[in-house]
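Tutorial sheet, problem 5. The two components below are modelled jointly, 907 residues in total.
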Amino acid sequence: MSAPKSTSRRKFLLAGAVLTGGGLIIGYNILGRQDKLGNGSLLATGKDEIALNGWVKIAADGTVTIAVPRSEMGQGVFTALPMLLAEELDADWSKIKVEQAPIAKMYSNAALFQNLLPFHPDDDGLLARSGRASIEKIGFALGLQVTGGSSSVRDAWLPMRTAGATARAMLIEAAAKKWNVPATVCVTKNGEVLHPAGNRKASYGELISDAAKIVPPENVKLKDPATFNLIGKAIPRTDVADKVNGKAQFGIDTRVPGMVYAAVKQSPVIGGTLKSSFAELSKNINKNNELYIIPNGVVVVSNSWWRAKKNLDALQIEWNEGANANLDSATISQQLAADLEKTSASGFRNVGDADNILKAATKKVEAIYQVPFLAHAAMEPINCTAQIKDGKCEVWVSTQVPSIAQWKASKAAGVSSDNTIIHTTLLGGGFGRRLEIDMIEQAIHIAKQTGGRPVQMIWTREEDMQHDMYRPIAMSKFSGALDDKGEIVVWTNRVAAPSVGFDTMQRLMGSMAMDMPDKNHIEGAFDQPYEIPNIKIEQVRSKTPVPVGSWRSVGHSYNAFFVESFMDEMAHAAGKDPYDFRKALLQNHPRHRAVLELAATKAGWGQPIAVGSARGIALHESFSGICAQVAEVSIDKDNNIRVNRVVCAIDCGSVVNPSIVAQQMESAIIFGLTAALYGEITIKNGRVEQSNFPSYDMLRMAQSPRIDTYIVPSALPPGGVGEPGTPPIAPAVANALFALNGKRLRNLPLRITT
Amino acid sequence: MITLNINGKDSALDIEDDMPLLWALRDVLNMTGTKFGCGVAACGACTVQVDGVATRSCVMPVAAMVGKKIHTIEALEQDGKFHKVQQAWIQAQAPQCGYCQSGMIMAAVSLLEQKTNPTDADIDEAISNICRCGTYPRVREAIHLAAKMGESK
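Model answer (C-alpha cells):
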C-alpha cells in the first residue's frame, strides 16, 4: 500500500536540491570555519569602536556589542545568543549591548534544516547519518537567515562561542605583546586581560585597537562547561527595560520622515479577485487620501492609519468570488476523511509486519481524531514599512526571514538586492506567521506607487485573522492491538492533512515547488520513541485552497494530540496506568523515561487529588527537546474546562538560560492551551468565519494555570526550547478529562457536552 | 482643534472628533508605546489611564477625552526611575515579545491604585488583556511583587 520508505526518503532529499535550484542560493560553495567567524567589516562601527569579527565589536570605553542574526520575537535570542559569545570572551556582562546583525551569508541558519529530515531520531543508518551531515552544509550554503524551528541556540552554540573565544585570544595576544610576556601567562576576567605574575591588567577597551591588528587565530579552544560563568545561569533578559517603558520598537512603531499610512482590504473569499474598478472606487476617496490597487487588494493611503482605514471601510468594494465561493469546513473535513481511506499513502516508518499482525490480533483499538485550522494571531498585527527611492528599496519589518525578505523585496521592487535594505525590528510575536513575506511584497507594491514616499502598511486584526497561512486542519486514524498481557504489539497511524512544506515552497518558488512527501506533516507521528514491535506510519496529502503555514511546533502541534491521546486509549484498553504504560515502552530511551518520571513525580502522579479534579500525562519529543507534562483539570458548573496546574519537565540538552527556558515552557503551554480549549478557524462560503478576538478567543489571565517547570540537567549539545512545550499540553488535558469523566475527546478544541 | 491633556501636558490637535485616542497618540503625536492590537477593545494592548482608570484607547473618540487626564506608558518613569510596577515587571522577568506589555502594565497600575493588595481573583478580574506569549503567570507575580513594594511610586 505504501511506497517503500527508501524511495520516499530519496525523493524527500531531492527537496533540498529543488529548493536549491529555486534561486534561494548563489553558488554552492560550502563555507569553512573562518567564514562563520566573519569579517569585522560586516558590522557598522561607531566612534572608538572596532569589530573583531562578524559577531562582536568593542568600544574604547569597554562596551561590548554583540550582533545577533536571529529575530527577537519573545523567545529570548537577544539574551541567550549574546551569553554564548560573552561567556567565551570573558566579557563584563554589565557592559554588553545587543544589536540586530545585518544580512550576510555567514549568519545563515544551518541547524534549522535538521528539522526537515525524515529520519527517526533513533535511525543511525548510513542514509540518516549522511543526510544529517549534508543537510547542515546545504542549509548553510542556502544562506537563509531564518528564525524558526527552535533552532537559534542550536545553530549559534559553536559559532558564537568560537567568535567569543577567538576575540578573547586576540585581546590576550595584544596585551601580551604590550607587556612583552608570553600569551600563555595571561588570563582574562570580566572584560580585562590580567598578567597575575606581573600584577598588570588592561581592559578590553584599552586593548581593542591593538587587538584588531592581530590575525584571528584558528582552532581556539572552547571552555570546559564546568568553568562557565554565564551559560547555565538565570541572567535577566537584555530586552526587558525597553519592554516596560514603551521604548521597544516593533515594525509597527517605525517612523520615517515623510511617511504615510496604508490600510488594505483583500478579497474576503480565498482566492477571490477585485471586481470594482479603480474609477468607481476613486469616487469615494476623500480629499488628501489616495487610492491604489495592488495585486491582491485595495489600498487607501492617508496621513494617519485611522483616516486611511475609515475611508477604506466606506468604499463599496466588489469581488469576483472565484472557484472557492462555496468552500466550507464540512466539505474539507469530508475530504480529509475520504483521504484517510485512500489506497495509496506515503510511508514514513515501517517496523515489523504491522498489517499482518493487526489482522491476526484479537484485541484491537481504533480511533479517528481531528483538529481544525488555526490562526497565529500574533499581538502585533501584520504590517510593513517600505520606501522605494533613488534606485534603493528600504524595508522596515518585524520578520523571521530577513534574507528571504531581501530576495523577495528586491524582486518586487525591481531593485538589485545590494540596494535592498531590510531593517529587522523587534517582533510583536512570530509563531511562524512572520516566516511569510506576503506583507513585504504588499508594502512594496504600494511603495512603488507613492512616488518615493515611505509607506507604512498595517492590516486590521480582521485582515490578519482572515488572511493567515493557517495551521492545517488534520485528521488521524489509528489502529492498535494488544496481546493477552496487555502489551502493545501493533501501532498503525495514518494522517491526512494539507502540506505546510508544499504550500510554503509554492509561495516561495511558484511552479518550481514539487509535490513530495512532507516531513512537517507527519512529524510527531513517525518520530516518537515508544518501543513497539510493529509500527506503520503513513501520510496522505489533502489538497485545499486554504493556505497553510508553520504554526508554533508545526506538525507536532496536532500529531502530539493524536499520538498521546491514542497512547492513553491503549493504556486504558490494557487496563494499565497511563504513566506506567508509557514508561514500559521506553526501556531503551533513558532520556525520555527520565523526563516522564520527573513530570510524574513532581506532579504527584498516583497521589490523591481533590474531588472533581483529575490528572493527565503526555510525553513528546520535538525540535530535539523532550517534554512531558501533567495537567490537573476540573470542569466548572458551566461546563468550562479548567486547567488548574501544569507540571512541565523538559530535557533540552545543555541549558543556556534556565529562566528563559522556564519562560518558554510557560509560553508554549499557554499557546497550546488556547488551541486546545478555544482555537478553531472555520470556513463558510469561501470565507474565514472568525474575524477578531471575540470570535477567535484567547486564554487570558483568569484561565491561566499555575505552571511549574523542571529542567533535566544535561551535558549534551543544546536542543530546541521555543516549541517543544506546545505539543504535549492538549493531550495532557484531554487525557486528564478522560480520567475525570471517562469521555474520550478526539477533536480539538476540547468541548464538554452533556 | 481638540485639546488633550496627555501626561500632564496640553496638546492642541487638528484632528476629527471621532478619531480614537490610540491613533491620536500613535500617528499624530508619534507616541508609539501604546499599541494597536484589535481595534475593538478586546485585547487591551492599547490600554492607557484616563482620570486614573484603565481605558482601551482604540475605541475611545478623542472628543470624549477633552478635559480628562490621560496617562500613557511613556510617563510612567519618573525622574529616570522606574515605577514600582515596572520594577516588579523586571524582577519577575515578565515580558517576552513585549508587544502587549504596555497595556498590561497600565492595567496593573490602575488596579494597584484602586486596590493596594489585590488578590488573585482581583487580578483575574482586572487584567483581561491578551498576551499571545503567555506571560500571565509572571504578570500575576509582578503585580503581587509591586503590591509588596508599597504605595510609593
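Marking note: Chain B touches chain A through 59 residues (CB under 8 Å). Full credit if you identified this.
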